[in-house]
Design a protein that fits this description.
The complex is a heterodimer of chains A (337) and B (247). With 337 residues, chain A is an alpha/beta fold. Chain A has 14 helices and 14 strands. Chain A folds into two domains: 222 residues, Rossmann fold; 98 residues, Alpha-Beta Plaits (2-Layer Sandwich), CATH 3.30.70. Chain B is mainly α. The chains are: A alpha/beta (337), B mainly alpha (247). Chain B: It is found in: Membrane.
C-alpha cells in the first residue's frame, strides 16, 4: 500500500578521507530500564568534519554523546575515540566537551574556573586567550553562580575549549542564549573549525545544523535516520504531505510515477502522497489531466519528514506508530491550492 | 591536579558559613560536655583527667565532623548539580579529585583543633607535661582526620539527595559512639568494645590518648588508620570514576 523510495545520503567526509576515524560507534546499544535510548548505533566521524547531531528530544542525542565521552558505558557494542577508549582520549587531551546542563563549581570566579580547565588540559591554552575567544573576558571576575543562562553556556564553552583538543563535543550549546549571543557563539565555533578541529554538536534546530555543520546526522529512536551533507538533509526535510481526492477511476500506476514522490497511499478516492518537491508533484498531477479536490499540502516538520522519507528503516524500528506521525504531529499549513 | 586542590581550598575558605561552623562547633561541644567536669576527675581505666580526655575527644570529633559531614553533603550536591560530570570530561584523574576534597577537609579541620586546645587550656586549665605534646596532638588529630575526609568523599559518592544526610548521620554517630569519642569505651560491654577496637575512630582517639599519656602512638593504630585511609580514598576515587549519574 505504500510505495517507498529509500533515501540515504552518504556521509560527506567519509569516503573522501583516508585518515583514521575520530569517533567510531559499532553496533552500540544502551537502554535505561525498558527505554532503548541508543539502538544498534553505527557511526563514524572523520577528522576536520563539523557534524551536527540532529533530532528531537528523546532521539538519543545526549545518550550518544554520553557514551562517546565515557560518562556512560554501552550495554553492548564498541565506542572508540581516536582509536582508544573515550576516557583515554580525554586523558590525552584530545577531546574537549561541553554538556548541555549541569551546575558549575560554586564560589569561584569565571577566570578561576576556566583557568582550572586550562591547567588540567595537557595542551592547555593561556586563560586570557580562552576567555577572549569565548567572549567572556569582561565577566572574568564575576562569580560563576551569578551568571545568566547565556553567559553560563559561554563559560561551559570556554571550559570545553581550554586546550588544543582535536575533537570538540557540544551538547545543545546554544540553549538559553538569545539571538545575538548565538551568533557570537557560532562565530567562536567557526574559529575552532578553521583550526582543523573536528566538531560534533547536538541540536534540535535544523537551521542551526544547516548553518554550521557540513554533515548532519539525524537521530530518531536511538538510530541514525539520515546522514548526509546539510544540503541533502535540508532537501529531505523539505518533504511535504499532499492529500487530495479524485473523482472517477484512479490510475495507480500513473500516480506512482509522479515526480519527487517518496510515498503514496490510495484508499478509496483519497490519495495521500509524500513528496520532496510539492510544487513539482502537484504540477504533475494537473498535467495528468486530473482534477484533485480538497488539495492540501502540509509541511511535515523535521522529524516527520525524515520518518516519511525513511519509511523502510522506521517500519522496522517503531512499527505502525510512524505512519500516524505525519497526521498527528503539529504541522504547518503551507498552502491550500 | 594541583590547580584543583588550590581552587577547592580557596573556595572553601570563601564559604564563611561553613568555615565558621566547622571551626567553632567543636569548641562549643567541648564547653558543653567538659564544662561541668572536674579537673581532678579521672577517666576510668586511664590516668587521664576528664577535661584533658574531652579536649582530645572533642578536637577529634570536630575534625571527624568537618571531614565527614562537610565533604559528604557538598559532594553529593555537586554530583546532583552536574559539576562532577563536567569535571570528568577533563583529564583529571580520580585520585586528583579525592585529594582535592581531602585537602579541603584538612584546611577546615586544623583551625578547629587549635581552637579547641586554646579553649581547653584557657577555660578548663588543661595542661600537658611537655610542649611537644601539644604539637604532637595537633599533628596526630589533624593527620587522622584525613581518614574521615576520605570517608566523606566516599559517602558523597555512595548516596545522593535525601539519602546522604541519614547515611552520614548513621556512620557519624556509629563511629563516634563505638569508637569512644563521646565517652570512654571502658564502660561498654566486651563484645561492643571488640568491635570498637577495629574502628577508625577508636584508632584515632587512641592516637591522641597515647600522646596525652606521654607516649608515642601505637603502631597498630597508625597502621589501622593508614589502612582505612587507603580504603576510603581508593573507594572514593573508584566511585568518582565510575559514577554515571545523570545531572
Amino acid at each position: 500500500m505504500t510505495a517507498t523510495t529509500a533515501v540515504s545520503a552518504p556521509g560527506t567526509g567519509a569516503a573522501t578521507t583516508g585518515a583514521p576515524p575520530v569517533v567510531r560507534f559499532e553496533k552500540v546499544n544502551k537502554s535505561y530500564g525498558n527505554v532503548r535510548a541508543v539502538a544498534d548505533l553505527d557511526l563514524t566521524l572523520y577528522p576536520g568534519e563539523t557534524v551536527a547531531l540532529l533530532g528531537p528530544n528523546g532521539a538519543g542525542k545526549s545518550s550518544s554523546l554520553d557514551l562517546l565521552l565515557g560518562l556512560r558505558h554501552p550495554d553492548s557494542g564498541r565506542v572508540e575515540v581516536f582509536g582508544t577508549t573515550p576516557r583515554q582520549a580525554i586523558v590525552r587531551g584530545r577531546v574537549g566537551a561541553m554538556l548541555q546542563s549541569g551546575a558549575l563549581m560554586e564560589d569561584v570566579t569565571v577566570r578561576e574556573l576556566v583557568g582550572l580547565a586550562c591547567e588540567l588540559h595537557p595542551k592547555g591554552h593561556p586563560v586570557d586567550e580562552v576567555l577572549e575567544r569565548a567572549g567572556i573576558a569582561e565577566i572574568a571576575s564575576r562569580k560563576v553562580n551569578k551568571l545568566s543562562g547565556g553567559q553560563e553556556q559561554r563559560v561551559r564553552f570556554a571550559f570545553a575549549t581550554a586546550g588544543a583538543s582535536d575533537l570538540i563535543v557540544l551538547d545543545e550549546p546554544t540553549t538559553g542564549m538569545d539571538v545575538s549571543s548565538r551568533q557570537t557563539f557560532w562565530g567562536a565555533m567557526r574559529e575552532q573549525t578553521k583550526q582543523g578541529r573536528t566538531i560534533l554538536f547536538a541540536t534540535h534546530y535544523l537551521e542551526e545544523a544547516d548553518a554550521i555543520a557540513d554533515r548532519v546526522i539525524v537521530l530518531h529512536g536511538g538510530r541514525v535516520l539520515a546522514d548526509g551533507s546539510s544540503a541533502a538533509i535540508k532537501a529531505m526535510a523539505g518533504a511535504r504531505r499532499i492529500n487530495f481526492e479524485l473523482d472517477g477511476p484512479i490510475d495507480g500506476t500513473a500516480l506512482r510515477a509522479l515526480p519527487a514522490l517518496t510515498g503514496i497511499e490510495i484508499s478509496g478516492r483519497t490519495v495521500r502522497i509524500r513528496s520532496t518537491d510539492a510544487d513539482a508533484t502537484v504540477h504533475a498531477v494537473y498535467r495528468l489531466g486530473l482534477y484533485p479536490r480538497g488539495l492540501e499540502v502540509t509541511g511535515l516538520g523535521l522529524e516527520q519528514a525524515f520518518l516519511a522519507i525513511t519509511d523502510a528503516a522506521t517500519d522496522v524500528s517503531t512499527g505502525p506508530a510512524t505512519d500516524m506521525a505525519g497526521d498527528t504531529a503539529p504541522t504547518v499549513e503551507e498552502s491550500a491550492r | 591536579m594541583k590547580a584543583l586542590v588550590k581552587l577547592e581550598i580557596a573556595r572553601t575558605l570563601r564559604n564563611r558559613k561553613f568555615m565558621f561552623f566547622t571551626v567553632v562547633y567543636p569548641s562549643v561541644l567541648f564547653l558543653l560536655i567538659a564544662g561541668s567536669t572536674d579537673a581532678d576527675e579521672r577517666v576510668p581505666g586511664t590516668g587521664l583527667s576528664m577535661p584533658l580526655y574531652y579536649m582530645v575527644a572533642m578536637a577529634s570529633f570536630g575534625a571527624l565532623t568537618a571531614g565527614l559531614m562537610g565533604n559528604g553533603e557538598r559532594i553529593a550536591k555537586e554530583r546532583e548539580g552536574g559539576w562532577t560530570r563536567q569535571l570528568r570530561l577533563t583529564p583529571l584523574p580520580g585520585r586528583g579529585y579525592v585529594a582535592a576534597k581531602i585537602a579541603v577537609g584538612a584546611v577546615a579541620t586544623l583551625p578547629s583543633i587549635v581552637i579547641v586546645f586554646v579553649v581547653a587550656a584557657a577555660v578548663k586549665g588543661v595542661r600537658l607535661d611537655a610542649a611537644w605534646e601539644w604539637a604532637a596532638l595537633t599533628g596526630a588529630i589533624w593527620a587522622g582526620s584525613l581518614v574521615f575526609a576520605a570517608l566523606g568523599v566516599a559517602i558523597g559518592y555512595l548516596a545522593t539527595g535525601d539519602a546522604v544526610r541519614p547515611l552520614t548521620m548513621i556512620i557519624y554517630f556509629g563511629l563516634s559512639i563505638l569508637g569512644g569519642l563521646w565517652m570512654p569505651t571502658t564502660s561498654y560491654p566486651q563484645w561492643l568494645r571488640n568491635i570498637g577496637d577495629y574502628l577508625p575512630t577508636h584508632a584515632y582517639t587512641a592516637l591522641g590518648q597515647a600522646i596525652e599519656l606521654g607516649g608515642a602512638p601505637h603502631a597498630k593504630d597508625i597502621a589501622l588508620l593508614i589502612g582505612y585511609l587507603a580504603l576510603f580514598a581508593g573507594g572514593a576515587a573508584w566511585l568518582y570514576r565510575k559514577d554515571t549519574r545523570k545531572a
